[in-house]
Amino acid sequence: xxxxxxxxxxxxxxxxxxxxxxxxxxxxxxxxxxxxxxxxxxxxxxxxxxxxxxxxxxxxxxxxxxxxxxxxxxxxxxxxxxxxxxxxxxxxxxxxxxxxxxxxxxxxxxxxxxxxxxxxxxxxxxxxxxxxxxxxxxxxxxxxxxxxxxxxxxxxxxxxxxxxxxxxxxxxxxxxxxxxxxxxxxxxxxxxxxxxxxxxxxxxxxxxxxxxxxxxxxxxxxxxxxxxxxxxxxxxxxxxxxxxxxxxxxxxxxxxxxxxxxxxxxxxxxxxxxxxxxxxxxxxxxxxxxxxxxxxxxxxxxxxxxxxxxxxxxxxxxxxxxxxxxxxxxxxxxxxxxxxxxxxxxxxxxxxxxxxxxxxxxxxxxxxxxxxxxxxxxxxxxxxxxxxxxxxxxxxxxxxxxxxxxxxxxxxxxxxxxxxxxxxxxxxxxxxxxxxxxxxxxxxxxxxxxxxxxxxxxxxxxxxxxxxxxxxxxxxxx
Length: 478
Hints:
Helix content: 25-40%
GO molecular function, one term: hydrolase activity, acting on carbon-nitrogen (but not peptide) bonds
Distance between the termini: 48 Å
Structural class: alpha/beta
CATH superfamily of the domain at 93-420: Metal-dependent hydrolases
Largest sheet: 8 strands, mixed
Domain Amidohydrolase-related: 88-457
Radius of gyration: 22 Å
CATH topology of the domain at 93-420: TIM Barrel
CATH architecture of the domain at 93-420: Alpha-Beta Barrel
Protein name: Amidohydrolase
Strand content: 15-25%
Signal peptide: 1-33
CATH class of the domain at 93-420: Alpha Beta
Number of strands: 17
Organism: Rhizorhabdus wittichii (strain DSM 6014 / CCUG 31198 / JCM 15750 / NBRC 105917 / EY 4224 / RW1) (Sphingomonas wittichii)
């Protein structure tokens, strides 16, 4: 059985993952959370759309203590002062669709291999450098659990991680990096295994049959594991909405747009081609169903933009931020094989439809999340999340609405309101200090002066030094 074989691979990968984790822990500077005061700063708490000027924000033991008028809020004795004059502080950002390369079933399709410690460290550092303090890992194995727990325990520096187990696909699966389930009982058993191991959610994929999908939904409900992923191509839009916590890549819309969805086949040839049939009336009809079902959408617009023609693909290898990743994480061969040139041309042509869906979801009050699918197709961690925010604004959202999809909404989606995603007393001190107001111009999210992750402060100078160190390691020999 294919899924049994994959499980053996996962077991072997856990040993490699533990070794990598040890390397990361050794390489990580252990900095104890200190007391801080960010003085005379404009606070954007993201509990609603507002800017509160000239505040002093106090951080104690890795958490937000409080903030108040600078004139009457005294910094703690012995605490470190951060000058916030002319600056704006927002909650840490969230990338809700990533594939962390630590071994196990990662996006490159290898269930056994793991990346080098330098590559893994760079991946985490790039999130921090760009103010991304929470990530949702969309294909995981036991090494990801080890990394998640080590970060939570302060043994490794990195963003907060929530992780799925391996991707649950039909038989035959869409690609080599998913696990195949052709029988409901086998799918139920894997969901139970995922719950016992402590994974945070279940991810389903494109070729699942309705009977297996229903078994996953039923068992995940019993195990109290939310379900995310692709709406399977052979499961109707209405039926699938009853089981999903969130939809990735706007999948399901594409099939429902087809003039006759019953003619769609499960597999690559028909995957996402239906966007070309999208109309305003059909978008509004489907968005109303999503709103009623209370399902989040994580559009990952940025990764669609990377499925381009061959000429633009060549240019992508020269992206400035690409130098912070090793060649092994800049290899886009897999997805350019999965999606041939004609398929990619179709996706380029239907970009306006995806932007219209995002705007319609926002207008209807259907919840949105920001995700990128990094590192697929040279979607560089952190930098790509900023691009996704700009795509949301391009779609017609306000900067506040875009930022909410990356701060307050992920916390609400994960049932962690008050723990992160907003600047409120008691929340984790995950903060981004900006040189200009992002509510006036979303491009200002790029103007980072410093990042705080659970009370650990990374000033701009340290961020730049870390980035340049990674660039030097990964530079091609002359």
